[in-house]
Design a protein that fits this description.
The protein is built from four helices and ten strands; from the N terminus they run ααααββββββββββ. It has about 240 residues and is of the alpha+beta class. It folds into two domains: about 80 residues, no CATH class; about 120 residues, Sandwich (Immunoglobulin-like). The strands form two sheets. Strands 2, 4, 5, 8, 9 and 10 form a six-stranded mixed sheet that branches. A hairpin with a 3-residue loop joins strand 4 and strand 5. Helix 1 packs parallel to helix 4. The longest helix has 18 residues. The protein is elongated and about 70 Å long. It starts with a helix and ends with a strand. This is ceramidase. It catalyses: an N-acylsphing-4-enine + H2O = sphing-4-enine + a fatty acid. Its cofactor is Zn(2+). It comes from Salix purpurea (Purple osier willow).
Length: about 240
């Protein structure tokens, strides 16, 4: 209901601007996350009930009214072409936060082994059926060095032609699992186990599994790496 009232308020301002492009067919979309800065935004009626959402509206019963007031100003500025002052910024408290999470000291591999090398690969010339699980273990590094928010830790690629590999599944897919582990808490070595449960909808062909990560050196520099399994066939 809060979103509906906000959209209606913005639409009313746009339609009353006199611009022909803003008519009854205007569709207002609320898109974006506050990243928990303001928690829930409820109507004043919901706030008075103090159920879960109302009790989690942190800035009081008039939070929605404040949003509507400011978005109406933005909508009016949009139609008139006026610039808008940025206004006050919330304080940056990142440097004042206390973390009890042990920092990553460094990552390492055994002598002669590189990050991204396979510790346990698929057998050469192996064939799997849909419904089987393919497991590959890579020498890896702590995922906290780079959370790969714009990428992926694991990827299944399919071969098209003789040399062209294309993404087929990544760790957004439920069929692909990425598991990270150390042999002990104080060890600098770690493994990334990638399990692909081949879905029934998988296209028959030649596949491989890839791993992406970032390793931290003793002096604090971060180096990204990749690794690939051997190719295998899915029938």
């Amino acid at each position: 209901m809060a979103g509906r009232r906000l959209r209606d308020a913005v639409k009313t301002v746009l339609m009353s601007s006199g611009h022909e492009e803003y008519n009854s067919n205007v569709h207002v979309v609320i898109a974006g996350l506050t990243n928990t800065y303001s928690q829930y935004v409820t109507t004043i009626e919901e706030y008075e009930m103090q159920r879960y959402e109302g009790a989690s509206t942190l800035f009081g019963p008039h939070t929605l009214s404040a949003y509507i007031q400011e978005f109406k100003k933005l909508a009016a500025a949009l139609t008139s072409g006026r610039s808008v002052e940025p206004g006050p910024q919330p304080p940056d408290l990142l440097n004042e936060q206390i973390s009890l999470l042990t920092p990553v000291v460094m990552d390492a591999t055994p002598p002669g082994v590189h990050f991204g090398d396979c510790s346990s690969d698929v057998p050469l010339n192996s064939t799997f059926k849909r419904g089987d699980t393919v497991t590959v273990v890579f020498w890896s590094a702590c995922p906290r060095n780079d959370l790969m928010t714009e990428g992926t830790f694991s990827l299944v690629e399919i071969l098209q032609g003789k040399e062209s590999w294309f993404p087929a599944y990544d760790d957004d897919d439920f069929c692909l699992r990425f598991k990270w582990s150390r042999p002990s808490k104080l060890s600098t070595r770690s493994h990334a186990t990638i399990e692909w449960r081949i879905p029934q909808s998988a296209t028959p062909g030649v596949y491989r599994i890839r791993h992406f990560g970032a390793a931290k050196s003793l002096f604090g520099s971060i180096r990204h790496f990749t690794g690939s399994s051997s190719a295998f066939v899915v029938t």
